[in-house]
Design brief:
The protein has 4 helices and 20 strands. By secondary structure, it is an alpha+beta fold. The chain has 3 domains: 157 residues, Sandwich (Jelly Rolls), CATH 2.60.120.260; 69 residues, no CATH class; 83 residues, no CATH class. The termini are far apart.
């Protein structure tokens, strides 16, 4: 007999298409155990060849890994529209410890190849167990396929809760106790987004082309290692980091081109516009005015300039091009030169004053000599 899998797209009135009413299928991602026989992943898999073969007394247990509400359940058989291999009798129970089960469903005379049970009066539970109590007449086993444990928002299927019908796993979207989790089954904040390993954990992306290339904000996670970009927040264009911004796990910020080497805590290859920049600096050159400071003579300065083509203590053009310019050090050096220049002017003024005094004295002597004649 040719086998085809029947997958119900609609559960029943009040349990409409899951994708349109924000339902969540927990069974697809559950940990499943059985004392029957699984084919192609078993009853919770979503392959056209998946089913679990059970005889009387055998069971399937679905471990949802945390206590969650289940409002509806359904399953089918491996043979499309063929009720011969659906259980005639079965129970479905729930449990918090996986040891003691309370039946939410008890059926003794089933003929529906795709049974649906809505409005389950069950508390939030971690474990669910289907047990076959009887096969159809003339059959020795049953076939369970496409088993679903479905939850929806409290009070209404359109309550605004977000669920992922794909299954209860780390890639799902969860709404629990007012918190939304993406990639985590137990969100502990209003929005909790979790990634894995060294891959991109989270990403916000714009793929439109009306303005520029694709842009992306991504959150990279890793355990560490030599890559400082692990654990970074990055802004991209297209699929390549071309010179946007990175917030690094070592406390640094990069605003740079892809080819630039990240050396400092903040690296930027473009212009910076600011109304005010404050630099904390030590070694401010007030020591120039100390009586013990040895002010170079102008002759020494002249000889240094003739030899090096720049002032003493000031980096050369080649040094600035190679190593850059420290704003704080640069201001300190410039201030030192201004203070030295001030001392030169003061000394020059004192020299001029002495010369003027000498001229005045000579003038007086000349006048006195003239008057005697």
């Amino acid at each position: 007999m040719k086998k085809t899998l029947f997958i119900a797209g609609v559960f029943a009135t009040g349990v409409a298409t899951a994708q349109n009413t924000n339902f969540y299928d927990y069974a697809a991602g559950a940990t499943v155990s059985t004392n029957g026989k699984n084919w192609s992943g078993g009853a919770s898999a979503r392959s056209h060849t998946s089913n679990t073969e059970l005889t009387t007394g055998q069971y399937i247990i679905f471990d949802l890994r945390t206590e969650v509400p289940v409002h509806s359940l359904s399953f089918g058989t491996f043979w499309s529209s063929d009720a011969r291999f659906i259980p005639l009798g079965y129970t479905v129970g729930y449990s918090s410890d996986g040891l003691s089960y309370t039946n939410a469903v008890v059926v003794t005379n089933n003929g529906d190849p795709n049974p649906v049970h809505n409005n389950l009066n069950a508390p939030a539970s971690r474990y669910w167990k289907l047990t076959v109590t009887a096969p159809q007449a003339g059959q020795t086993y049953t076939s369970i396929a496409n088993f679903r444990l479905v939850s929806h928002g409290v009070g209404s299927a359109t309550s605004g809760s977000f669920w992922d019908i794909g299954g209860f796993n780390s890639s799902s979207i969860h709404y629990i106790a007012g918190n939304v989790g993406i990639g985590t089954v137990l969100p502990d904040k209003m929005l909790h987004i979790a990634g894995k390993g060294t891959s991109f954990g989270q990403m916000i992306e714009n793929t439109g082309t009306s303005v520029s290339e694709t842009s992306r904000l991504s959150f990279k996670t890793a355990s560490g290692g030599s890559d400082n970009r692990a654990g970074a927040i990055e802004w991209y264009e297209a699929n390549t980091f071309k010179g946007d911004i990175r917030l690094l796990r070592n406390g640094g910020i990069e605003i740079r081109n892809q080819s630039d080497q990240p050396i400092f805590h903040l690296t930027n290859t473009g212009d910076i516009f600011s109304k005010k920049i404050k630099v904390t600096q030590t070694g401010w050159p007030d020591y120039v005015f100390s009586p013990s400071y040895q002010l170079p003579s102008l002759e020494e300065v002249k000889n240094f300039i003739a030899k090096n083509q720049h002032l003493p203590g000031v980096p050369s053009a080649a040094e600035v091009e190679e190593k850059g310019l420290d704003l704080g050090d640069s201001q300190a050096v410039l201030l030192k030169k201004i203070e030295e220049l001030t001392l030169y002017i003061i000394n020059q003024q004192e020299t001029l004053h002495r010369q003027q005094q000498q001229l005045d004295d000579l003038r007086k002597q000349l006048n006195a000599t003239t008057e005697k004649k």
